[in-house]
Please model this.
Amino acid sequence: MSLLWGVPYLFIKEAVDSFAPAAVVAGRTLGGAALLLPLAVHRGALRPALARWRWVLAFGAIEMAGPFMLLSHAEQTLPSGLTGLLVATVPLFSALVGLARGDRGVLRAARMGGLLIGFAGVALIVWSSGGDGRVDAVSIAEVLLVAVLYAIAPFIVAGGLRDVPPLGSISLSLAAVGVVYLPIALITQQGAPTTRSIAALVALAVICTAIAFVVFFALIAEAGPSRATLFTYVNPVVALGLGIVVLDEPMTAGLLLGFPVILAGCWLAAGGRRQPAVEAAVEAEAAVVPVEGSDPDVEVGRVGT
Model:
């Protein structure tokens, strides 16, 4: 996930060079849906998703419709690497969401300390990158809102969609978001896009949307909704590296100092060691509150089975 969702910031930056933000959202979601919908129908995954259509639409709105548009708009002014770093605040918001839902494991000193250390590393990097005054405050706020939405989405999967095949939920969500944004894209798009932007949009649809969401659901099933977002501590390394190498974005002392701080925070937030199976199972169970109409005996690890 760190690789699959560390790369999109580069592709988004390239895509918005000649695509309108709404066109980027419509292109990546409709492209992803075109790849996954036939497979979902073939595997019989679409019918269970349609039965939970309210949860599917909620997931699409919180994980795709809002974040994709906000990121595309923000990257018209923000460097791709800095955008990736701001999204690294997701685990902090995820911990707060998990705590509100009854996950007391978040209050452990090591995990909470790790989250705070990781956030301090992100703050250091953002401060050093924004010291020249060119960073737009509205764009930063947009990306931080993306982090909040990304923190909420895994709990929707683990709650309302935990017994729905992931392929059905993902493909239906992508299709719904794409249909909503298509007319907006047609209205706002001006001029013909460049070949480079088209290639970036295709990569967004195939690699960073269709493939990435399948892996994301598998990660939630394996690690639970709280820890599933910890990859966002590592993907800024990918985003920054690509921004520096491909887009010639600056490398500062703050970046060099912040990298190890973020990685240390990630390790501590995950527990600093491999947890015993029983302890991990208790935390996973505490992180999910049964929703109306769901089977309280279904485990988080049964997502999509």
